[in-house]
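Dear colleague,

As promised, here are the two records you asked about, laid out in our usual form so they can be pasted straight into your sheet.

NAME FIELD: protein one
SEQUENCE, THEN STRUCTURE:
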Amino acid sequence: MKTVFAPILALALVSSCAKAVPKGAVSVADIIDNIHAWDGETVTVHGWLGQCQKLSCVLYASLSDAIIVESQRPDQAKLSAAIEGVSIGSSKTFDEAAAQLQFSEVIIRGKVSDECRGLFVDCTDRGPDLYPISIASYSSERAN
């Protein structure tokens, strides 16, 4: 009886932690707060794109966050370290589209990944919190 009960209890606990992904656009903070619950789910996220380069591409909650982190001014180093963003995985088509939208308000559709947010994991070089599917200017999305 114990061997049957334990897996059922474990399944109930895991199910209770799962959180449904909202249908509309979510925020950068929503992705960070729910990254484990939404792992593998496709989401639409709204935020400000920083500089997308070969080794780094991050979506921030605000333009000022993007500018502070991307400028790496020594006087703002402590503030920069406190600002979190969503790291965007690399794909050639995404990077080409993102090149024109740096430091712009955007909507990104992608698949959430918690592979770089584990307890003993430290990813570098565009460790993906989000595998991108598409990107669009926020203003053009609102017009549609």
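NAME FIELD: protein two
SEQUENCE, THEN STRUCTURE:
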Amino acid sequence: MKLPGTVAAGLFSRKGFLEEFEGTLTQTEAEEMAGLCAAITLTMEMQGRLLGRLADQSGWDDCYGWVTWGPEMSIVAIHDSLCVVQGGQASFNQLVKAMTESAGTEPIKPGGKGEPNADIG
């Protein structure tokens, strides 16, 4: 990811395995981040499905990304992609757009490391 403020970027599997990574985090930190991002992504998807059923409205099933931001660092996850960015230096709009375009071509599939991707819907 060649966007301003990007510290690290990576891909993770549904099981939380780190698939690819580039950035300033150590391998251990990147693996921990992948596990965390996979868990949060699955939780967000389940919340979207539940809200869709409770509200009896479509659209909630399309929840596929999330952002957690703080004063120094922020995490953005879209499908199976993650980005760690420096606060105040990154445009979330630009980052989400780039990640959505990239992730939209190969969303992840339930499974594990090395498995082919498929639609998560």
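A couple of things worth noting about protein two: The beta strands are 6-12, 18-23, 65-69, 73-78, 81-86. Residues 62 and 121 are 7 Å apart (CA to CA).

Best,
R.
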